[in-house]
Amino acid sequence: MKFLAAACLLVVNAHARCAEIVLERSGVEKLVVQALFKDHGRLTLARGPCASFLEQPTVSLANGRIQIRAHLSARLGFVVNGDCAGVELSSWTRVSGRPAPAGGSVRMEDIRIDEVDDANTRALLVNSGLAAALPNAVELDVRSALQTMLQQSVEKMQATVESFDFQDVAVANDRLTLRFNFRLVGR
């Protein structure tokens, strides 16, 4: 026999809100590091002799955006005989993205470079096209995280998230708020 559970709160104005997860800055930082900085603590932007990556991330939440401050290391130039003939760059930088719902995930859209500490690195970064190497969309898989969390909390029962629909994703007051409907089936 199937056990069905849905956690819904009906508000008087007929607006249904089934669940809300509020992540403080530290929780968002853990998700960002887990989802993006998977390559030995690095987010690789370009591989090969002319490589670039971000490392040592810290996350802040402001202006409706998830902001990631990280150290950028890059070699920009041309590959000649298997080596990168060019310039080495190193600077602290801040990139940000606007969180938006996408299926069962939160997608960081409108990703941009907001700040580069070193002026020379900033100029080369803008002119090199390395900014375009930032992913167009970075996803944090909320549905999968919810499935794992629920499965771990229910002993001797298999719990499956059958449906998952976002109502709203917002950054405010140094928090990321995720509002969604879901249907949980236990077996």
Please estimate the helix content. Answer: 10-25%
Query: Structural class of the helices, strands and pairings?
Result: alpha+beta
Using the CA coordinates, give the radius of gyration: 20 Å
How many domain regions?
Answer: 2
Number of strands: 12
- Taken from the alpha-carbon principal axes, the silhouette is elongated
**Strand-residue proportion:** over 45%
Oligomer: single chain
What is the overall number of helices? 3
First-last Cα distance: 7 Å
* Average predicted local confidence, pLDDT: 79
Identify the strand order in the major beta sheet: 5-6-7-8-9-10
SSE topology string: EEEEHEEEEEHEHEE
Could you list the spans in which at least 5 consecutive residues all have pLDDT below 50?
1-14
The main pleated sheet reads as: 6 strands, antiparallel
What does this structure look like?
With 187 residues, the protein is of the alpha+beta class. The chain folds into two domains: 3-20 and 142-186, no CATH class; 26-102 and 112-136, no CATH class. Helix content is 18%, strand content 57%. It is built from three helices and twelve strands; from the N terminus they run E-E-E-E-H-E-E-E-E-E-H-E-H-E-E. The protein has helices spanning 25-36, 119-128, 142-153, and strands at 3-5, 9-10, 16-17, 19-24, 42-46, 52-62, 65-80, 83-102, 105-116, 138-141, 159-172, 175-186. The strands form three sheets. A six-stranded antiparallel beta sheet has the order 5-6-7-8-9-10. Strands 1, 4, 11 and 12 form a four-stranded antiparallel beta sheet that branches. It is elongated and about 60 Å long. The model is unreliable at 1-14 (pLDDT under 50).
